[in-house]
Design goal:
Elements: E1 4-8, E2 21-26, E3 48-54, E4 63-64, E5 67-73, E6 83-94, H1 97-106, E7 114-124, E8 129-132, E9 136-146, E10 152-156, E11 170-174, H2 175-180, E12 197-201, E13 207-218, E14 229-239, E15 244-248
Length: about 260
């Protein structure tokens, strides 16, 4: 982000498993010999790391193979937006004992100490606070159809068949709505994954796009060394203003 490079978490033996720290590296503006030197006091010439936060109580937690992207908006003649955020999506999270016990209450055969995540976190660089974002997704799409006799009907269509004319009839919901609906609502959100790619696009850069990665599902077969995770080749876009996830369906038959 301009003159800073940010990293979060990752796997390290210093953290025993995965880390939960956020670090910032200040990039030097040029060769060190170009900087003025102050006598008797330290002068910041960049080229150093700073620990921003290491909070086990409220943060994405210890995880690796997630994606991290940054977004900045500065006030101008057209808008007063002043936003400086870091977004973290997905990855593999190390579970603490309470999380493991809770999962074993639901499934007595649960033995894993980690979990593939599909959550989205945002870090405010001004207030140094993490936020677990409540996101929205497409719940249903109803297409308006006129019959030969002028009768108006609506029919549900899958998201991979949506057209531009369906935009006014797309219904969205958040995860809490689905949980409270007792199974009457569904929601289209990106599945949990790790080792995916992510980028912010647009002008202004209001869209977070993620592609691919590996899921928690294991490929069938007798592998001698380790279990191979199933890879994903779907493409999703998240609008940072509306907090809305949408899946993009590409025209090519064989995506990467």
């Amino acid at each position: 982000m301009r003159k800073y490079l940010y990293i979060y978490g990752g796997f390290s033996f210093d953290c025993q498993t995965a880390c939960l720290d956020l670090w910032r590296f200040e990039l030097p503006y040029g060769p060190q010999v170009m900087y003025p030197k102050k006598i008797g006091e330290w002068h910041n010439t960049g080229n150093h790391w700073t620990l921003i936060m290491e909070n086990a109580n409220y943060s994405p937690g210890p995880r690796w193979r997630h994606s991290l992207t940054s977004i900045q908006h500065f006030p101008d003649a057209n808008t007063n937006r002043d936003e400086h955020y870091i977004y973290i999506f997905g990855g593999i999270k190390i579970l603490d004992e309470a999380d493991v016990d809770a999962k074993r209450d639901l499934d007595q055969n649960y033995k894993s100490s980690y979990e593939f995540m599909g959550d989205l976190w945002r870090f405010d660089l001004e207030s140094n606070q993490w936020e677990d974002l409540e996101v929205y997704g497409i719940s249903s799409i109803r297409r308006q159809i006129f019959l030969w006799n002028g009768t108006e009907i609506y029919t549900d269509v899958p998201s991979d068949q949506k057209l531009k004319k369906d935009l006014n009839n797309i219904f969205i919901a958040k995860e809490r709505d689905v949980e409270e609906s007792n199974g009457t609502l569904t929601l289209e959100l990106p599945p949990a994954r790790g080792a995916h790619s992510a980028a912010l696009v647009g002008n202004p850069a209001d869209y977070l796009m993620i592609f691919g990665g590996a899921s928690e599902e294991v490929l069938p077969g007798n592998f001698q060394v380790y279990k191979i995770k199933k890879t994903i080749n779907d493409l999703w876009v998240y609008h940072t203003g509306r907090r809305l996830w949408s899946r993009l369906y590409v025209n090519s038959e064989s995506p990467p």
